[in-house]
Specification:
Length: 417
């Protein structure tokens, strides 16, 4: 495998020297400048042109690094070793700095040359040192020989190396598992194939960023129900035996809340409340913050508005399991004073027991989930009451004491008294 490109190269050079392939319509490399490049590091940079070149330089850096890391990760995955992106970036920077001192072109990890190097059987970075040494020997002594090499030969060597990197099995896997990822893969593949590496990778990266923004702007939320006989609360779509409580709505937000998704989360909670309130007026809304790693000022404003809106309608807003960073933001914004620490709990079960104790026991009932498959992933079915099921109230079986202990637990867990 390693000797095949070398044999083809020698063979075509001999053909050109004997029967003149160029005269028969086959293009050859032609003139190759002889000798090493001269040192240009002492040439002053025109300061006036820096602003004009800034955009071009930035695009070269971004696209060059993307191309380099893409082929590096592809080969790393193929040969089962790890890649450090930071070291790759440092290596590219040093290489470009040294090349710039001699008037060289911007350097990146070439997709085609890496593929040829891999196809030739290279196993370590020593292959790069050997290649650089051979290139130096060629430009010093053998340029007349390689001027006879034909372009089709060069193209065939590159194509034979790149073909082995087309991972069609990965495309099949992505199609089965995640259609969006398959779409990004196809954009990168077709864009690179027809538009070039730079544009192809650029399109794929832009599409990936758009998907990230979309998914973060429309995060997953779920209505939670209590698994019978436990203190665990799960998505009622996935656990149809989960029990719901009349007058209490438990919602989980599965993402950080920030300016891009705060309004969407508010709208979803309002929709859940309207649907659940068709059978009986909601008195408590419990929002689980276990997956909320961060809240920004926009999210805090939305939470303030939600509290005021629900407070006017005599609906109490409860928050469960906020981390220390989120709890600090809630306190700094004054939201903890508005909601009061009595409504912030360590766990969802603590909050539910508190709400049940506050409600009239005759009005409390629990019932299994009535979920319709046709609903979308962010929607739930209408709630159906089952008055025949006896209410659940706080008892020693729940494993929790009174609410003073719960509040102390929140203060201890979050670092705020």
């Amino acid at each position: 495998r390693a000797l095949a490109p070398l044999i083809v190269t020698v063979f075509t050079i001999v053909l050109q020297a004997t029967i003149d392939l160029e005269a028969r319509g086959i293009p050859i490399v032609g003139n190759i400048p002889k000798g090493l490049p001269r040192f240009t590091g002492g040439i002053a940079v025109d300061i006036d042109s820096v602003g004009q070149l800034a955009v071009v330089i930035l695009s070269i850096v971004i696209v060059g690094f993307m191309e380099s890391i893409a082929i590096a990760k592809q080969l790393a995955g193929k040969h089962n070793y790890e890649i450090d992106s930071s070291k790759e970036l440092v290596g590219l920077g040093v290489a470009n700095m040294c090349g710039g001192l001699f008037g060289g072109y911007p350097l990146t990890g070439s997709f085609s040359r890496s593929a040829v190097n891999n196809e030739a059987g290279a196993k370590s970075g020593v292959s790069g040192i050997v290649t650089a040494t051979l290139v130096m020997i060629v430009v010093l002594f053998l340029t007349p020989v390689f001027e006879l090499l034909s372009f089709p030969t060069l193209a065939s060597i590159v194509i034979s190396g790149v073909v082995s990197l087309v991972d069609y099995e990965e495309a099949i896997y992505l199609w089965k598992v995640h259609k969006f990822d398959f779409g990004v893969w196809m954009v990168a593949f077709l864009g690179t194939l027809f538009l070039g590496v730079e544009l192809g990778l650029g399109l794929a990266v832009c599409l990936s960023l758009l998907l990230v923004i979309f998914e973060s702007a429309y995060p997953h939320t779920a209505i939670l129900g209590r698994l019978p006989g436990t203190t665990q609360y799960r998505n009622i779509k996935n656990y149809r035996q989960a029990e719901l409580y009349d007058g209490i709505l438990v919602v989980r937000v599965d993402a950080p809340i920030y300016f891009a998704n705060a309004q969407n989360i508010r709208d979803k909670v309002r929709k859940y409340e309207q649907r659940a309130g068709k059978n009986k007026k909601i008195q408590y809304i419990i929002i689980e913050f276990s997956a909320v790693a961060h809240v920004d000022t926009s999210a805090l404003h939305v939470l303030h508005e939600m509290h005021k809106t629900y407070h006017k309608r005599n609906i109490r807003l409860c928050i469960t399991n906020p981390n220390a960073k989120v709890m600090q933001r809630l306190q700094q914004s004054g939201l903890t004073d508005e909601i009061t620490l009595d409504q912030i709990f360590v766990s969802t079960h603590d909050a539910l027991i508190h709400c049940l104790n506050e409600m009239d026991g005759d009005e409390v009932s629990r019932h299994p989930t009535d979920y319709n498959d046709k609903d979308q992933d962010d929607e739930t079915s209408e709630l159906v009451s089952s008055p025949d099921v006896p209410p659940v109230t706080s008892s020693s079986d729940d494993g929790f004491g009174d609410n003073d202990d719960v509040e102390a637990g929140v203060a201890k867990a979050t670092g705020f008294a």
